[in-house]
From TrEMBL:
It comes from Maudiozyma saulgeensis. One of its GO terms (cellular component) is side of membrane. Its EC number is 3.2.-.-. Disulfide bonds join 22-30. Residues 283-392 are annotated as: Disordered. It is a lipid-anchor; GPI-anchor. This is Crh-like protein.
């Protein structure tokens, strides 16, 4: 990647502003995070029970075609935030980014202690999308972001998937891996419970710094409004179980995360099967139990547009039923039921893992082996414009943008690139 693009990506994280009111790394009184501990697909034909409208300026509309988020005038940045957290998992979006110079479309995961996995689109660039990540809000380096080639992202729906696992994170575009981030990275690895956020904002607003405006492609011309991003479907699956996730200490490590009535990666195999079923247009069943994980090759259907399955489903067989504790059972005519068991039920539904070695676009030279499960890719950024410019240096101007709320609404990657004016 060119030095110029590295520097542009640095501005995406020049300053750290907490996106939540309580950071578990600095406070011991933060509330626990509500766990998804299941899977669902949302088509946004109506307001979703899984997401909260942040009531920011701008328009959010639902129709038979899905979700439309529109920026019409200066200061608009419509935003949806999930009312759940996942502790490792998979997120997929079918999306068409907003066009327009200076317009930024965002889709990302973020934790209370500022771990972050991003994907974003700049309206003036109809050939690429950007991926980025942050660990505990650390923005001291500028080589985390990458650019990936995509065809006509503003006029064509593409499938972007982010698979966040304990050992690595993989971004996909239309089912092909374009980037792999190993958990051994020297710049930290996201490993605390994260919520999902999406929205649109004007990086090219004239009140932003010169570096931010240049990264966003130039000044936003509001006379060309409205600018709209579209989402036809979102699929989410949580790899962990429990009713809520909390921090056992202030280390921010995955080992410190406590899953009430559950465990980290407690439904990993079930989650992979759920995800495959949902991406193929199927449905998954609901359950109220949260202590075991099992699966079935014939997944129950539901008429709801948003389906959720909890971390435990009790499978049954017409031939026999066997009970055990802490056992993993694969059987063709016997089903194992347990409060702490992972069961593969009738006729043994199996999830296969295949290595996919992929090279990304011209901006990413090599991609490590990864698990491909009917997925794609993802990323994100944040919100909004008005920022006071109180320093003679561009670096301070960019930091000022973020400190006034861009990170709070759209994550650490929202501040595009500083140091640009210093070159």
């Amino acid at each position: 990647m060119s030095v110029r693009k590295n520097l542009l990506l640095l501005a995406a994280g020049t300053s750290v502003v907490a996106a939540t009111t309580c950071n578990p790394l600095t406070s011991t009184s933060c509330s626990a995070d509500t766990a998804l501990a299941g899977s669902f697909a949302e088509d946004f034909t109506s307001a979703s029970s899984y997401f909260t409208d942040e009531k920011m300026p701008g328009t959010i509309e639902y129709s038979s075609d899905g979700l439309a988020m529109t920026l019409t005038e200066q200061g608009d940045n419509p935003t949806l935030t999930s009312n759940f957290y996942i502790m490792y998992g998979k997120v997929e979006v079918m999306m068409k980014a907003a066009p327009g110079t200076g317009i930024v479309s965002s889709f990302f995961l973020q934790s209370d202690d500022l771990d972050e996995l991003d994907i974003e689109w700049v309206g003036s660039d109809d050939t690429q999308f950007q991926s980025n990540y942050f660990s505990k809000g650390d923005t001291t380096t500028y080589d985390r972001g990458e650019f990936h080639t995509v065809s006509e992202p503003e006029t064509t729906f593409h499938n972007y998937t982010l698979e966040w696992a304990m050992d690595k994170t993989t971004w996909y575009l239309d089912g092909t891996a374009v980037r792999v981030l190993e958990n051994t990275t020297s710049e930290g690895y996201p490993q605390s419970p994260m919520y999902l956020k999406m929205g649109i904002w004007a990086g090219g607003d004239p009140s932003n710094s010169e570096g931010t405006i240049e990264w966003a492609g130039g000044l936003t011309d509001y006379s060309q409004a409205p600018f709209t991003m579209y989402i036809s479907k979102v699929i989410v699956t949580d790899y962990s179980t429990g009713s809520e996730y909390s921090y056992g200490d202030q280390s921010g490590s995955w080992e410190s995360i406590q899953c009430k009535d559950g465990e980290i990666n407690g439904r990993y195999q079930q989650a992979l099967m759920d995800f495959a079923e949902l991406t193929n247009g199927g449905t998954v069943s609901n359950s109220t139990t949260t202590s075991t994980t099992s699966s079935s090759s014939a997944v129950a259907s539901s008429s709801s547009t948003s389906e959720i399955v909890s971390s435990e489903v009790t499978s049954s067989s017409t031939k026999a039923t066997t009970s055990s504790t802490k056992a993993t059972t694969t059987s063709t005519k016997a089903t194992t039921t347990s409060t702490e068991a992972t069961t593969t039920s009738t006729k043994a539904a199996t999830t296969s893992t295949k290595a996919a070695t992929t090279s990304s676009s011209s901006k990413v030279s090599t991609v490590s082996p990864t698990t491909v499960e009917n997925s794609s890719s993802l990323e994100a950024t944040k919100s909004t414009a008005s920022v006071s410019q109180t320093s003679s240096s561009q670096a301070v101007k960019v930091a000022s943008d973020m400190a006034n709320g861009i990170t709070a609404s759209f994550g650490l990657a929202a501040l595009p690139l500083l140091l640009l004016s210093l070159l």
